[in-house]
Write a structure and sequence with these properties.
Chains: A alpha/beta, B mainly alpha, C mainly alpha, D mainly alpha
Shape of chain C: globular
Number of strands of chain A: 10
Largest sheet of chain C: none
Structural class of chain A: alpha/beta
Low-confidence stretches of chain C: 181-187
Distance between the termini of chain C: 41 Å
CATH topology of chain A: Rossmann fold
Largest interface: C-D, 42 and 30 residues
CATH superfamily of chain A: P-loop containing nucleotide triphosphate hydrolases
Oligomer: heterotetramer
Largest sheet of chain A: 6 strands, mixed
Number of helices of chain A: 9
Distance between the termini of chain A: 42 Å
Number of helices of chain C: 7
Helix content of chain A: 25-40%
Strand content of chain C: under 5%
Shape of chain A: globular
Number of domains of chain C: 1
Radius of gyration of chain A: 17 Å
Mean pLDDT of chain A: 80
Low-confidence stretches of chain A: 1-20
Chain lengths: 237, 230, 250, 44
């Protein structure tokens, strides 16, 4: 399964040079089935490096599935999907090494503190302590928050911890599903700032969002998912 | 994927799992009392010292088997509760490391469980263990736990990672663990001296446990990734 | 209408399956004549030995089926193309294996009632059989978990390989367990049979007949599973059209 | 039950489920046949 893992350059510096050759996301006529229901129905989408794409659409239109496909979390029934030049179907490990995905869940262990969560992920991906500290600082996680169990954090604090984990994992493609959900106004602004910073630092960001006026200011491009297919709606702003 | 990286991931996963267990106290507050009450209830149900001493080894391992179902489900529920399993899949983490880490944490928890159960058997059922028997007992517990954990982590990953599949775990796991139940029970009988068994008679059974553990640890290391990562 | 339908040959039939079917029916009739009438009664077991001619072949072919499932599963995993047909063959074979193993259990306990006076005894063979029966019921449950066809194939292929490793381990441990404890005082079902030439021939013939039945069932079942998969794939087209229509304002 | 009954029951129980399985399988095949094209049946 993971046959290409060994030869793949894991350090993101290398993958950035790959990215400059090809589109970050290149999805063509993708069909993704949830059971027998086509959540994505021949969707086609290209995303270039450094874009901040906001994905809009009604509930059940296929936004989440589109993000999960880009992360290699759902199998492709038909069509092709390449992320950073790697085939999502056959070379998932290479895709995932570069992808940070934040869905409705945060992927954190509630019984561990925020700091323990961060250091677990840094152990697992082989990041250094300084990288962890930098990520925590960037997401505004104070010492007090870091030593609090994740189960006791607020929704916004959990989100920030999850984003810090993503930064520790050195993701170059950020896939965020409704990152603003459950946050108050300052929290939302914070997220927006973080996303702009990430793009400025060389990452590509795809955000699925309900909020039209917010995303209008955030996005470099807006697309809309309708009935499992992708419709470009807003141009470059 | 280099071996040192796999070991590193395994260590991180195992210590993370054990820390979570330590903190949430599910083991001490729920699993152990459950296992203990099984032992006590059997004492009431059988109500005969002679029979209790004879069946004590089997009871210890039956209780361990049932406790293992709870422990395994818990081990993977921790991963799926906030979709950390997705994050693990996504992080490009070698699945072999995740598997070995999960197995290691499960082994530790199962050995703790067995130690308590064996102690209960000694007290409640008045079983005696000499020094040779104690060595045999400890070896049996470790290798028996390894066999259970090696298989349970694979089937647990398959059946608990997604909701609505929990009933699959006992169906897949329990028949496959028959050799462990048989081997560990016989070895423990020898250690306890039940039915006049001598400790030396237990070692062939320990061999069976070792073979079982080795085979499925190897198979699980290969199969866990493809099986759980869909 | 249903009568008219049943007179049409099923769409899974080919010349091969028809011939296999004919051989199977003919063979079964001959086997019944041999087993029930022509062979002698056993010196020790008397007429109850006649159960052997169906009991042993079903058991034997069930094991064959499980090994075949594992071979197909390994082929699926190793193959570059990840052939779904191999996966369906594995599934069909396991289904038939579970049925045969179920038959083995039933006839085994009936035979036990005759020769041991009890329906169940912790005989190593019966014990192993019941564990494996449950194991493969679990395998079939894994096949039914859902997901895409390739997901199903990969998942079940790995479980099939685990299950086939369990066969010798379970059998060996059960054997060891019984051999160290109370040795049987009653008759062992396959043990104390003194075989003469015709009995031995009938037994081998029975194995051959049930192997043909197995091949016949698996071929048909494999094709039905292919039809099920094909219908699912065709259903996707309709579902896609319906999905596209969601976006169109009515 | 007499001895012979056990034997007859064993034989019947061995073949009846197989026949039932084959019959159900054939019925399923006929149900599915109208829903597929010839290209879905490489054996024909």
């Amino acid at each position: 399964m993971a046959k290409d893992v060994g030869g793949f350059p894991r350090r993101w510096v290398c993958s950035v040079s790959l990215v400059s050759e090809t589109s970050v996301v290149d999805v063509r006529d993708a069909v993704v089935l949830l059971g027998s229901f086509p959540a994505l129905a021949e969707a086609t989408l290209t995303i270039e490096r450094g874009e901040l794409v906001v994905v809009q659409g009604a509930n059940g239109a296929g936004k989440t599935t589109l993000l999960r496909l880009c992360a290699g979390l759902v199998p492709l029934a038909r069509g092709t999907a390449r992320v950073m030049g790697h085939d999502v179907g056959s070379n998932r490990a290479a895709v995932r090494a570069n992808v940070g995905f934040l869905g409705h869940a945060n992927g954190l262990y509630a019984d561990l503190t925020a700091g323990e969560n961060l250091s677990f992920w840094s152990d697992v991906v082989g990041a250094s302590r300084t990288e962890v500290a930098a990520a925590a600082h960037r997401m505004g996680l104070s010492e007090r928050l870091l030593s609090t169990q994740v189960g006791r954090l607020s929704a916004g604090q959990k989100r920030r911890t999850a984003l810090a984990v993503m930064a520790v994992r050195r993701a170059t493609l950020w896939l965020l599903d409704e990152p603003h959900a459950g946050l108050d106004a300052p929290g939302r602004d914070e997220i927006d700032t973080l996303l702009r910073d990430a793009v400025a630092a060389g990452a590509t960001v795809v955000v699925a969002s309900h909020e039209l006026e917010r995303s209008a200011s955030l996005a470099t491009r807006r697309i809309e998912v309708v009935g499992g297919r992708i419709v470009e709606s807003g141009g470059h702003s | 994927m280099s071996a040192s990286r796999i070991v590193g991931v395994a260590r991180a996963v195992a210590s993370k799992d054990l820390r979570i267990e330590w903190r949430s106290r599910v083991m001490t507050n729920q699993v152990l009392p459950f296992a203990a009450i099984v032992m006590v209830l059997f004492a009431f149900a059988l109500d005969n010292d002679g029979i209790l001493q004879r069946v004590a080894p089997g009871l210890v391992w039956m209780a361990t088997l049932f406790a293992s179902l709870v422990v395994v489900q818990r081990s993977f529920a921790v991963e799926s509760a906030d979709s950390a399993i997705d994050a693990l899949r996504l992080a490009g983490v070698p699945s072999q490391g995740v598997y070995l880490g999960k197995v290691a944490a499960l082994v530790v928890q199962l050995v703790v469980c067995e130690a308590v159960l064996a102690a209960l058997a000694l007290i409640l059922y008045r079983v005696n263990v000499d020094r040779h028997g104690a060595v045999l007992l400890v070896t049996t517990c470790i290798l028996g736990s390894l066999g259970i954990a090696a298989l349970a982590a694979v089937y647990g990953g398959l059946s608990v990672a997604d909701r609505g599949r929990e009933t699959l775990l006992p169906l897949l796991l329990l028949p496959a663990l028959a050799p462990v139940l048989i081997g560990a029970t016989r070895a423990t009988e020898s250690a306890f001296g039940s039915d006049g068994a001598r400790a030396a008679e237990g070692w062939p059974w320990v061999g069976l446990l070792a073979v079982f553990g080795a085979i499925f640890l190897f198979g699980g290391t290969l199969g866990f990734g493809p099986l759980t990562d869909e | 209408m249903s009568n008219a339908q049943t007179s049409v040959p099923p769409p899974t039939r080919t010349a091969t399956t028809r011939n296999l079917g004919l051989i199977a029916i003919l063979g079964s009739v001959v086997l019944a004549l041999l087993g029930l009438f022509f062979t002698a009664e056993d010196v020790v077991q008397g007429s109850s030995v006649r159960i052997m001619y169906v009991h042993v072949p079903t058991a034997w072919v069930a094991y064959l089926a499980f090994v075949f499932t594992a071979v197909c599963s390994a082929g699926y995993l190793r193959g570059k193309k990840h052939s779904l047909n191999l996966d369906r063959l594995a599934g069909a074979s396991a289904e038939v294996g579970v049925i045969f193993m179920g038959l083995t259990l039933v006839t085994g306990s009936l035979w036990g009632r005759l020769s041991w006076g009890t329906y169940w005894d912790w005989d190593p063979r019966l014990t192993t059989t019941v564990f494996l029966f449950v194991t493969y019921v679990g395998y079939l449950a894994v096949r039914g978990l859902g997901g895409t066809q390739q997901q199903r194939a990969k998942r079940s292929a790995i479980v099939a390989l685990f299950a086939v490793i369990e066969i010798p381990l379970v059998h060996f441990s059960v054997l060891l367990w019984r051999s160290l404890h109370q040795e049987a005082t009653v008759l062992r079902p396959n043990g104390d049979v003194r075989m003469d030439g015709l009995m031995l021939f009938s037994l081998v013939f029975g194995v051959a007949v049930f192997t043909v039945i197995f091949a016949w069932l698996v071929l048909h079942r494999n094709r039905v599973l292919a039809l099920v998969d094909a219908v699912e794939m065709r259903g996707i087209d309709a579902a896609l059209a319906a999905r596209h229509a969601e976006g169109v304002p009515t | 039950m007499k001895h012979a009954d056990f034997i007859v029951i064993s034989w019947v129980l061995s073949f009846l489920p197989i026949a039932f399985y084959a019959w159900r399988n054939a019925r399923r095949a006929r149900q599915l046949d109208p829903l597929v094209e010839k290209s879905d049946k490489p054996w024909t």
